[in-house]
Amino acid sequence: MDVTFDTLIRRYSEDIAYLAGGDNGPLTIPQEGFTPERFTELVEDAAAYLDRIPVSPYFDYAEELHQAAIYLNDALTAEPGPVQHAFLAKAGNCIDVAEPAAQDLALSC
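^ that's the sequence the OP posted. Answer follows.
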């Protein structure tokens, strides 16, 4: 199955919104969901938030999200098709690695 923006947004919106909200708490997810551009911005915001936590493994999670944002930006500019799906799959893999950060931080509150 090809990975699409919709697939990634549905799968990760809650965790990314939690991290992107930073110290202010989770961002509200619009009923219609995030656009691909907004989701990419939120991944970047989530990475920036994790960069500010000087504890391992959050630095590693931040690096994964920075890389995911690069792949998402590449996917935004790619033609729909195999190349875009490849960028999105790579972004999804990076977000998978960083996903425990949201659960870890939620449990520590």
